[in-house]
Amino acid sequence: MSTPCVRAPVSAGETTRQALAERDLLDGDREIAVEDGDIYLPVVDADAAREAGYEVVARETTERDGPTPPAEILGVEPSYERLGDVVILDEDDPERAREVADAIVESDVPCETVVNRASKVAGEYRVREWDVLYGDDTETVHREYGHEFALDIAEVYFSPRLATERHRVVEQVSDGEHVVDMFAGVGPFAVPMAARGAEVLGCDVNPAAIRYLQENAQRNGVADRITALEGDVRETTADYDDWADRIVMNLPHSADEFLDTAVRLAGDDCVLHLYDITHEDDPFGPGERAVRAAAEPAGYTVAVETRREVRSYAPHEVNVCLDVRIRRA
Q1: Could you tell me if 290 and 257 are in contact, meaning their C-beta atoms sit under 8 angstroms apart?
Q2: Cα dihedral angle (54, 59, 63, 68), rounded to 10 degrees?
Q3: CATH classification of 2-60, choosing from 1.10.1740.10, 3.40.190.10, 3.30.420.40, 3.30.70.2580?
Q4: Mean pLDDT of 235-246
Q5: Residue 278, Cα to own-chain centre: how many angstroms?
């Protein structure tokens, strides 16, 4: 049977599968295929997949013949995401969470642990509390665009939903660049940037994140191009003034508080990737005004190269990114 399929490199297979599943585009009744380094993921709506930016091709597929998916057990399609071999639920009702966890374990979803969100992201380290419903290990290895990231969701913050956005930024990096990742976490920006030939300074206040960043640098063969600094980037980077060609500022809600430090770290020509949570009526204005207020008095010109809405965050609020080039006049 000829079926519309999204074609992607095998290295991006799991990330693409998760993104299609989140959009309810994945056709779970047809088999996924791999051929000549590409993965073919059957979809239920070819036009919607194209609108989402994917390459869609027609391909002969076969009907899935395997274990029962969770939806057949529950009668409805459950909402969950996978992070390595950990399955993450977001259910308000503990009984419903238990039902979904049992169905996932019974189904063909590969997992070692099933957890339910028990709190919002909170605290200096931006971590959650979790209800562990199956298994006992919240540490896992997540694969994203050909790289591996070890992490423990109980100790560090990590969002697999931002994989596409991270890849967009990483693709801009050139060999030999100096990059500062001001809030590096376990390295989802830093590691692939180093793999593209950049020299990366990764900072984080969370000692567990720094520990995993160092492990992931080793795991991915880029330890010689990543320097990890534990502590507040405003206090740990005195040796890197005028050093950076690119700065990643992924700390929504408060990244603007670090713009003076970003300007101090910036070289003569530097791109800032500033992430923020803003009101939908003026999603980019606050960030742009904040960059100008920090950079122009220091002698930089400011040019916004990209204004991007990354995702909806809350009613009337959006997660946005500004790619801003600052040049010393």
Answers
A1: no
A2: -20
A3: 3.30.70.2580
A4: 98
A5: 19
